[in-house]
């Protein structure tokens, strides 16, 4: 076993997943539940926002982020802003750098539900909330 986060005993780590042979997870070590990649500090998406979907974030099967299988492995994540869900996409293929090409979509202007609590990507890149 290898400890990758939470050395202080007060940091939570939730929703681990593998993509492209790398471990990704959500942690509150910054004070917000941001997305991290094992072996890279700081967060790959350092924001003053909580990723992870609806609380509690450790419920079985809940995932606040995923990866698009057919879109070059783009990260897709959800966070709340001003009472609405925001869908974010980002390129995280460079294992030695933070996310790039970050795009945000929200609410009625982008055809999304006002609130959703988790994301699942299908093989054809359809997203399910």
Describe the overall structure.
This protein is mainly beta. It is 0% helix and 36% strand. The chain is built from no helices and 9 strands. The strands form 3 sheets. It has a 4-stranded antiparallel β-sheet with strand order 4-5-6-7, with no helix packed on it. A 3-stranded antiparallel β-sheet has the order 1-2-3, with no helix packed on it. Strand 6 and strand 7 form a beta hairpin.
Task: Record keyword descriptors for this entry.
129 residues; mainly beta; four-stranded antiparallel beta sheet; three-stranded antiparallel beta sheet; 9 strands
Summarize the structure.
This protein has 129 residues and is mostly beta strands. It has no helices and 9 strands.
Helical percentage? under 10%
Compute the average pLDDT. Answer: 84
Oligomer: single chain
Q: How is the main sheet built?
A: 4 strands, antiparallel
Radius of gyration: 14 Å
Number of distinct beta strands? 9
Could you say which structural class the secondary elements and strand pairing correspond to?
mainly beta
**Distance N to C terminus:** 33 Å
Uncertain segments: none
Order of helices and strands: EEEEEEEEE
Instruction: Output the number of helix runs.
Output: 0
Strand content: 35-45%
Outline:
globular
Main sheet: which strands, in order across? 4-5-6-7
């Amino acid at each position: 076993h290898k400890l990758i986060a939470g050395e202080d005993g007060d940091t939570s780590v939730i929703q681990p997943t593998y993509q492209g042979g790398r471990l990704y997870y959500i942690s509150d070590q910054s004070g917000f539940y941001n997305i991290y990649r094992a072996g890279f500090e700081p967060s790959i998406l350092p924001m003053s926002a909580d990723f992870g979907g609806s609380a509690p974030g450790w419920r079985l099967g809940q995932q606040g982020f995923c990866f698009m299988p057919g879109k070059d492995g783009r990260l897709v994540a959800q966070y709340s802003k001003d009472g609405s869900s925001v869908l974010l996409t980002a390129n995280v293929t460079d294992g030695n750098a933070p996310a790039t090409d970050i795009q945000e979509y929200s609410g009625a202007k982008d055809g999304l539900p006002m609130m959703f609590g988790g994301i699942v990507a299908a093989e054809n890149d359809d997203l399910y909330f």
